[in-house]
Amino acid sequence: MSPPTGGTGRLDRSRYDLEFGEDFTGTEVDPRRWMTHYLPQWTTPERSAARFDLLPGVLRLRIDADQPAWRPDDGGLRVSNLQTGSFSGEVGSDRGTHRHRPDLRVATAVPTRRLYTPSSGLAEARLRATPDPTCMLAVWLVGLEEADPDQSGEICIAELYGSAVGPDGSTVRLGVKAHHDPRLRTDMADIALDLDATDWHSYAAAWDAGKTCFYVDDELVRVVPQGLAYPLVLMVDLFEFPAGADRDPAVYPKAAEVGPVRGYRPAPDR
Known about the structure:
Blueprint: E1 16-22, H1 45-48, E2 51-55, E3 58-63, E4 78-83, E5 85-86, E6 113-114, E7 121-128, E8 135-143, E9 154-161, E10 170-177, E11 187-193, E12 201-207, E13 212-216, E14 219-224, E15 232-240, E16 254-266
Antiparallel strand pairs: 1-16, 2-3, 3-16, 4-15, 5-6, 7-12, 7-16, 8-9, 8-15, 9-10, 10-11, 12-13, 13-14
GO molecular function, one term: hydrolase activity, hydrolyzing O-glycosyl compounds
Keywords: Hydrolase
Pfam families: Glyco_hydro_16
């Protein structure tokens, strides 16, 4: 079944069944749904751990002044991330979820977790980005890579760079990334929209093996004639790309917010 759209290009949820729903209404992040570490196999636990607050119905992701870099070999990049699965080989192995660089090697072996790993369907998140020019808020689906390291593709539902969002309009980066999946080609685009992404907006992707449809506030904004048909991990994350080593504590914490997150499976009888 191809990802459906309505006659006006609006998202049609009627052909899907909800299988993953998160409203962030508890006092803790639910470990049955989320891991609170960013790709922990490629680094160490104190570096992969997310910083966040839980507000009523909102996950507030933070980058703090004392937060260590995610991986020293990647420079000063800092991340606070939640994800729905993990896989790695033994320490020293090059096998693991989202091996986005060929030189990555497992630093911390992690158990295989499949909390929510869809291979087709619809995923959406309500986001409120930060205008900080050093930050990016993102929601992605990336290959688990457990069965086959070539199953590494990515559906980039939205990347919201602080330098590209604001009251006069915002640019959303989205599309498909091949990484090392030989069946895919990277096809990304910057979509200029008449909205302020520092306010609440919803971002979604519906996909199957042949096509991926991207939506903002339920309106179709792009179709990529490629899809993925293997287990994917859902990730929501705040990145900081610092301009240099000096960090002014007065500008921290840097924060962005995540509202409801949903995942749907195709309904076989619709």
